[in-house]
Amino acid sequence: MIEVEEPQSLSETQQLNLVVNRMKIAENARKSQEDKWDRDYKYYRAYRKFDTDYWWRSQLFLPYLFAIIESICPWLIEPLIGGENFFSIDNVGDQSRTQNAENMTELMKQQISEKMRYFEVIVMWIKNHLIYGNGIVKIGWWKQEKEFRYRKWNIDPYFGIVLGSEIVEEKRFAYNDPVLDTVQLENFFPDPYGEDIEDCRYTIERKIVDFDYLKALEKSDVDDESKPYINIDQLKGTKFTGTPPHFDKLASVGETVGDAGGDRTRNLVELLEYQEDDRFITVANRKVVIKPVRSNPFFHLQKTYQMLKDYPLDKEFWAMGECEIMAALQDKANDLENLRIDNLFQALNRMYIVLRNKGLKADQFVSRPYGLIWSDDLNTVKPLDQVSIPREAFSEKDLTRQDMERVSGAWEYAQGATPERKETATGIVKLQQAALRRFSLKIMLAQKGPFKNALNQIMQLNQQKLPQGYMIMKDGKPQRLNPWDIQGKLILKITASSDLAGEKEKMAKLFEIAKDDPYFDQYKIRQRLLDVFAIPGADELLLKTEQVMGGARGMSNMGMGGQEIVARMPEMMGIT
What we know:
14 strands; disordered C terminus
């Protein structure tokens, strides 16, 4: 039987050895992915290094993969976060806490729209999983205290006269909310035996930070964990000599960052943030434990990462992305297009066979109108016959593009383009619906797994860490929210639909059926209608119950009956 050490029984040396050894194992296991990610990054950016030895050849890279990824991304974004009500929170059990569920909903909506860069991060999360096959985000809580200055006016309490002003400085939290951010795959090292993040025994995230940043954290409770940073001064004898992964990416496509990599005013430190479900450890420069082993500081007792997969493979951690499955087709399209251009240039710029030592100069053979080549012997110059390539050979490029569309499901109609081939209206609709069904599967995989889990962790972090007196806007008015106002057993549901094929048409038909039916919640069905059509500000557009009743009474006074009032509701709300 293998004995496992309890977290608290490990010495700092044992903690260091545990993290560094597992980091080496994870690095070696992940090596094969790094070349693939480098290739995928270049394919997305349509980058090809110019070969100076063959400067006279065409060296184009057609951005087909870029177009496909940028076409699929919006199809996934809109149903996930296109409306304001893409999730709902309900109370379970104690009905007296229903108000707490509503408070949590309003709180998270405000944090998502104003605090967390949520939409930007979700877009990059989805784009990463399309390009590389895997997209990873980290969910946590961040506290940032700053000095603020403001002008305070001194007013006479009796006469209301301004007596002067003074500049006041005070410390307060600039940020005290959940955070969501993407994690570069190059910085993420999972347990090689894991199938997904939950299944991994451990994960390690690498970060590159400034030494001064760590010194500031040593005296701060900014991350609000149970143990502070320690041993920072021991790092003075160590040094991180590598470069951040995003610098390497830019360098791989010929971009430069100037002398940023050699900035001597910065003392960079490599952090390894090691996580298991029940314990966290942080190591710096693979030499010093700066945050000793501690129990998971979050009440949800999970790792703080969520991963989205594009084309998952059974029992495999790393999935396939759009670039991987279409790389060969992209290469084929590039080769055919470059051959076509080279053949065109050869037809326009003829080549000649010239006898040596006949006094002819190379510039005489430059193609120009009415150009002449003077020679005493007509056999001195002979044209080099170039076999003309039949036009049909170049139609292969278009067939290759169609193959890429077939593989990805992103037909030109879905990309907003009109293809050369003609389709009937019925054929176009069928192509679009076939593509949307494939995208719907991607959306369901996201909604039922990592997307919902990320929102759940944000909800649980709010219940654990929300400060007292937190200000939110509710019904257009400021309101203070306290931690006990959002407690209880709350359940989060994803209310956005994953069925994209004709969803708007189906919703419009359902509204026609349900708008007069007393068994339907009229407020919610109208709210859902606005969400499906991605109309922002649904909560502000829709009238509350008391307002609707007031309007109904006003119409009754104008001689309008109940049936007529119901029939006029869509018109009142601007829905046709």
